[in-house]
Amino acid sequence: MGNASSIEPTKTIFLDIDGKKEKIMFSRHCGSRDIHDLIAHAAGVSRYAEISLKDSAGAFVSLNPTMPINTQSSPYKVTSKEPSPTTDSSNGDGEVFTQVLSQVASQFNKVFKVEEMKTDIATRLSALERKMELEGLKAVEIEKCKRDISDIKDQIWNAQKKFVDFNRLSNETHTDSSETQNVSSLSDERKISLKRDVPSYPKYTLSQETIEYLKQPTFDIWHWEPNEMLSLLEHMFHELGLVAEFNINPITLKRFFLCVQENYRNNPFHNFRHCFCVTQMMYGMIHLCHLWEVMTREDLGILMTACVCHDLDHPGYNNTYQINARTELAIRYNDISPLENHHCAVAFKILSNPECNIFANVDKDTFKRIRAGITMLILATDMARHGEIMDNFKMKLEPEFDYKNKDSLDTLKMVLIKCCDISNEVRPMEVSEPWVDCLLEEYFNQSDREKMEGLPVAPFMDRDKVTKPTAQIGFIKFVLIPMFETVAKLFPVIDSTMVEPLRIARDRYEDMKEKNSMPPPPSQSNKKKTVTEK
Questions:
Q1: Residue 130: is its pLDDT beyond 80?
Q2: Are 313 and 343 within 8 A, CB to CB?
Q3: CB–CB of 414/380 below 8 Å?
Q4: At 327, is the secondary structure helix, strand, or coil?
Q5: What are the residue boundaries of the PDEase domain, all occurrences included (predicted)?
Q6: 146-160, 332-346, 371-385, range with the lowest pLDDT
Q7: Is 60 exceeded by the pLDDT of residue 1?
Q8: What is the pLDDT of residues 400-451, one digit of tens each?
Q9: Residue 35 CB contacts under 8 Å (≥ 6 apart), including other chains
Q10: Which residues contact 234 (CB under 8 A, 6 or more apart)?
Q11: What pLDDT score does 220 carry?
Q12: Are strands 60-61 and 50-54 parallel, antiparallel or unpaired?
């Protein structure tokens, strides 16, 4: 149903172009660049010319939709200047690119109405804040206002992020086209449908040395490109007999891994490389502990698939932030493991696509068990449940672990995926330490946003309080070592291959902390201060 507000008013501006009277008309939705091009056309100059307007008093007038209107008797004086020619082709190209980029930015602003949105949001925010200050508001109304303000802050944050990402994308297009794909992968849109089909990456022939190395906890995950990681994941599923067990079409397996890769965001830590890292550690533990002797291939398939999917579409902000900020995920899942529930939902959304469903050829009862098992394992990766799961596992170790008991076996599988999810410090220092830097970067991003939004900030995430040694020492001593020592009671080989590296890592970080806390000699105080600041 139409109304008067749907009629777009136009603005008329009168111009004096070298003594010739002209007038232009434009709507309020036009951008500055549109007005510039309109005047350039009226003046008979190129769109790249510099154009300025002066009123009858000689004051310059800004070229934008909000410029004051004038009359035919007091037109704006138009002055134009064509860009000077240059013999340097690269400078010319750069100038043209700048002009084009300016037009693109103007069109972007026009299409998405960024300025109008910011004005509208600011108006709504001011109205809500005034509303909260009024006396007599009921408690329920106050809570509703707080929720609305939080939603508006999210809109502002997302709008700013999209605009910054757009500018960054434009700049990187000019300097390095290959980096554009990396920036575009930061999009918050859910990409459940496969964006590319096989074969999109070459078939790699793995050497026997690589095949054996892949089974080791010391495997260096930093040496592999994304396409190589996809091929290694394929190899793991084939080598464990999972393709035969579930009658998986090899092309469907490729599509599944491609779709999984597309649904991991480009976070500093929770990204596709972390997914590969966790899955490879599970593959290593299967071989190290000979898990096929105590589990079925169906169980192994559930373990491996859960590892592949365990952090799908992770936004880079943990459950504490989701709950405190009252995000859509926290509301949807009632503050109960919102991220882990979301990872499960995305995983089975991918599997609901026939092109990616690696379990399409199993019967209904088998799929029901697979779905329940994967969901159970992904939900177990919520560290808020760590104490509960470990206490349950310790009880089942006494007097003797019963591999034939389903509840006991489920608990073991939950502990195994937990071990793999936080197993970075089991690896050699040159492999594990970069992960600490990645994790701290993600923590700092979250704490910065929490400070901006007035939310509680965890000390271990605050860039002003945490250091690499303090971040790791407590975690290794009180979480990692006790957990792996408990698993080693079932599989003694873990003590030498995993627990011992953890003890070495603990000692290394304690030495690092001690060296950082020692006062420097007087002659080296300035040098020490510089190092600390870095």
A1: no
A2: yes
A3: yes
A4: coil
A5: 194-516
A6: 146-160
A7: no
A8: 999 999 999 999 999 999 999 999 999 999 999 999 999 999 999 999 999 9
A9: 24, 26, 63, 64, 65, 67
A10: 250, 253, 254, 257
A11: 96
A12: antiparallel
Please, how many CA atoms are within 13 Å of residue 304, restricted to the half-sphere of its CB? 30
Tracing tokens 């001690």 back to the chain, one arrives at 514
Host H or E run for residue 205:
none
Contact by Cβ (8 Å): 278, 423: yes
Q: Which two tokens stand for residue 412?
A: 């073991």
Residue type present at position 232: L
In sequence order, what are the residues at sequence separation of 6 or more whose Cβ sits closer than 8 angstroms to the Cβ of residue 17?
A: 42, 43, 78
Q: State the pLDDT confidence band at 147, using cuts at 50, 70 and 90.
A: low
How many whole angstroms separate alpha carbon 265 and alpha carbon 185?
7
Q: CA–CA separation, 107 vs 30, rounded Å?
A: 9
Q: Tokens standing for 479?
A: 């979480």
Helix-then-strand count for the chain, H and E: 23, 5
Q: Is 74 exposed, middle or buried (0-12, 13-18, 19+ CB in 10 A)?
A: exposed
- Strand order of the β-sheet with 76-81 is 20-27, 10-17, 76-81, 50-54, 60-61
Phi-psi region of 159 (alpha: psi -120 to 50; beta: other; left: phi over 0): alpha
CA angle 39, 41, 43 (to 5 degrees): 70
Give 27's pLDDT tier (boundaries 50, 70, 90): confident
Residues tagged active-site: 270
CB 51 within 8 A of CB 39: yes
Q: Assign 280 to helix, strand or coil.
A: helix
DSSP string, 295-318: S-HHHHHHHHHHHHHTTTT--SS-
- Cα 102–Cα 172–Cα 96 angle in degrees, nearest 5: 35
| Residues annotated within a binding site for Zn(2+) | 274, 310-311, 421
pLDDT tens readout for residues 67-85: 888 888 889 888 888 876 6
**Identity (one letter) of the amino acid at 520?**
P
Q: What is the pLDDT of residues 217-260, one digit of tens each?
A: 999 999 999 999 999 999 999 999 999 999 999 999 999 999 99
pLDDT average, residue stretch 294-302? 98
What DSSP letter does each residue of 220-249 carry, written as one string?
-GGG--HHHHHHHHHHHHHHTTHHHHTT--
Count of alpha carbons within 13 angstroms of residue 401, beta-carbon side: 17
| Six-digit token string for 365 | 């009862």
Strand 20-27 relative to strand 76-81, pairing: unpaired
Q: Summarize the annotated binding site for AMP as residue ranges.
A: 270-274, 311, 421, 472
DSSP per position, 464-526: TT--HHHHHHHHIIIIIHHHHHHHHTT-THHIIIIIHHHHHHHHHHHHHHHHHHSPPPGGGHH
Burial of 354 (0-12, 13-18, 19+ CB in 10 A): exposed
Could you tell me which of 337, 423, 317 has the C-alpha nearest to residue 380? 337
25-34, 137-146, 199-208, 464-473: least confident range: 137-146
Q: How far is Cα of residue 205 from the mean position of the Cα atoms in its chain?
A: 32
